[in-house]
Amino acid sequence: MDTIGLSRPIGLALTANGDLYIAHSFNDRVVELPAGGGPQRTVPATGLNSPYGLAFDPAGALYIADFDNDRMVKLPVRGGQRTLPVAGLRAPAGPAVPPGRDAY
């Protein structure tokens, strides 16, 4: 797996097919390493500031703990990005998505 150039990789998450997602905190992005090999790919998320934790829900949406922006970001499978409406969130570090439940 190509992990060249990662700076402070903090959070990890695996998809059902084995793709590895890494919260590349010091470069304010999330990267994907395909299970079958190949180069890393930057996940299309905008405005991240020190992403920490990552999690996938059963539908395949990616949740990102956007630590320095004090928010949780959701990237649905069909594309797009949305900030979850969580009041008073400060420095989130790790999301969790239990089966059949909302993200925490």
Mean pLDDT, all residues = 88
Distance between termini? 30 Å
Radius of gyration equals: 13 Å
Largest sheet: 4 strands, antiparallel
* Strand neighbour order, sheet with most strands: 1-2-3-4
What is the helix fraction of residues, given as a range? under 10%
Task: Please give the count of helices.
Answer: 0
Task: Please provide the count of β strands.
Answer: 8
Give a structural overview:
It is built from no helices and eight strands. It is globular, with a radius of gyration of 13 Å. The protein has strands at residues 9-14, 20-24, 29-33, 41-42, 51-56, 62-66, 71-75, 82-83. A hairpin with a 4-residue loop joins strand 6 (62-66) and strand 7 (71-75). A four-stranded antiparallel β-sheet has the order 1-2-3-4, with no helix packed on it. Strands 5-6-7-8 form a four-stranded antiparallel β-sheet, with no helix packed on it. With 104 residues, the protein is mainly beta. The model has no long low-confidence stretch (mean pLDDT 88).
SSE map:
Layout lengths: L8 E6 L5 E5 L4 E5 L7 E2 L8 E6 L5 E5 L4 E5 L6 E2 L21
Record keyword descriptors for this entry.
104 residues, mainly beta, 4-stranded antiparallel β-sheet, 0% helix
What's this entry about, in short?
This protein has about 100 residues and is mainly beta. About 0% of the residues lie in helices and about 35% in strands. The mean pLDDT is about 90.
